[in-house]
Amino acid sequence: MRENGYAAVTSRRVAAVAGLKAQLVHYYFQSMDELFLEVFRRLAREILARQDEAEHADKPLRAMWDLLSDSRYRILIYEFVALGNHRKQVGTEFFQFGDELREKQVKLMRTALKRRGQTDFPWSPEFAAILLHALSRFLSLEAELGVSAGHANAIAVVNYYLDLYDRPESSLERRCRELEAENADLRAQLKKG
C-alpha cells in the first residue's frame, strides 16, 4: 500500500512479500477486505495508543502534535481514505476511528487547559484539534511535493501555542533557562567591556 497504493495489493503480492504461498493468505483472510480491515485496525490501534501515551507525557500537546506530524502514518491514512470510498466497511471503521481519535485529542486539550486554570484556547478545543490535524497533514503533503514557503512561520505559530498552553515546565527546566539567559547577558557584557 505504501509503495503502490491499495489497488496494487493482491493476495499473490501479499504472499510473495511475506514469503508464503497465496493459499495461506486466503486461509487467514477470506477476502482482501478482511485483510485490509486487519491492517487498518492495527494501524488505528497504534495511533490511538500513541494518543493515549500523549496524555501522560510531560508535554502532552507537544506529544499530540508529534503524533499528528509523524509522516509514517500519512501515506497509509490517505490510502485508507481512498479505500474507504470504495469499500463501505473500511470507510465505516475509518470514520469511527477518526471520531475516536478526535475525542481523545479534544479531551487532551481540555485537560491541558484545566491544568493551567483556563477554560478555552484562543479557539475551542474542538476547533484547535481540527486545525492542528489539518495543518500537520497539509504541511506534510506540501513538503513531500517540495513546497516549503510559509512552513517555518506556520510551525513557529504552532510551537508558540503549544509552549503557551502545554504543561508548565519543571522548576529545573525553568532554572536552566534562567541561567542560560544570565550567561548570555554576562557574555554580552564581557564583549562590551
How many strands in all?
0
Q: What is the 3D shape?
A: elongated
Oligomer: single chain
Q: How big is the Rg?
A: 22 Å
Separate helix tally = 9
Low-confidence stretches: none
Helix content range? over 70%
Main sheet makeup = none
Question: Can you give a write-up of this model?
Answer:
The chain has helices spanning 11-18, 22-28, 32-55, 60-68, 71-86, 88-115, 125-145, 151-165, 171-192. It has 193 residues and is mostly helical. α1 crosses α2 (22-28) and α6 packs across α7 (125-145). The model has no long low-confidence stretch (mean pLDDT 88).
Write the layout of secondary structure elements.
Layout: H1 11-18, H2 22-28, H3 32-55, H4 60-68, H5 71-86, H6 88-115, H7 125-145, H8 151-165, H9 171-192
What attributes characterize this protein structure?
mainly alpha, 9 helices
Summarize the entry for a quick read:
This protein has 193 residues and is mainly alpha-helical. The protein contains 9 helices and no strands.
